[in-house]
Amino acid sequence: MKLRDLVQHIRADVLYGEELLDSIDIEYAYGADLMSDVLAFARPGSLLLTGLTNIQIIRTAQMLDIPAVVFVRGKKPQEAAVKLASQIKMPVLLCQMSMFETCGILFAKGVLPCHIPDRGV
Amino acid sequence: MSEAPYVEEYSVQAGDFTSIGEASTKFRATLKMLGIPSEIVRRAAVVAYEAEMNALIHAGGGTLSMTVASDHLEIRAADSGPGIPDITLAMQEGYSTASDEIRELGFGAGMGLPNIERNSDSMKIDTEIGAGTVLTATIRFSAAENQKSGEGRQAAEQ
User: Fold this and answer.
1) Is there a smaller number of Cβ atoms within 10 Å at the N or the C end of chain B?
2) Do A64 and B151 make contact, defined as CB atoms within 8 angstroms?
3) What is the pLDDT of residues A62-105, one digit of tens each?
4) Do A37 and B109 touch (CB under 8 A)?
């Protein structure tokens, strides 16, 4: 799914990266507020959805070659986070909906989940 | 190997937590520049990032270094912090002694060392109470050895 179509599905505002939306394809997504979980389980290249707003979100995304970040629950990322995202050309999207609703819409539209390996618990 | 290994080292300092990840970002850029395969780069970036985070969170800083040889790379995080009293406990997913400030950043969930181990082919921790900790993680380049690169990820592709 083109990132531009995804933006329309979740009625997101594009805080940065409008010109990049047509060049990014999203197949998988991962939603979390724990960045260590993102590092552990997010598939490289998947979309990240989060409710945290600090610069470490963008750094974490960068480590995993995540192409764009959606901030849910109407959260607005901190200025330093947006600045870093623009430096590395990572679109920043704002969505008013909850994490559950945002993920639900994307799942229904065919975006795939990242696999969580059996952790033996 | 005829060429000398490439070595890069940074001092990571405590204080402003917003700087966490800068050294790892530089490692990542170097590996990309060296033409290392993207899956190896991603694993190395995660290892370095978690190690950098640990050094800052638990020891107030330290030294993060990366050595790139022909068939492997090594990431080493050395600090002069309090040491790890119980490594087995520290390796348990979910166990963490991180502060609320760190948790508010989305870290301190007790996943750091397990993440480092998961993304490495081998990991070694030398620690001494009151003296510090040296973590060494190795990632090999050969295809056979790269199978570990997250069994979960491979399963996800099936």
Assistant:
1) C
2) no
3) 999 999 999 999 999 999 999 999 999 999 999 999 999 999 99
4) yes
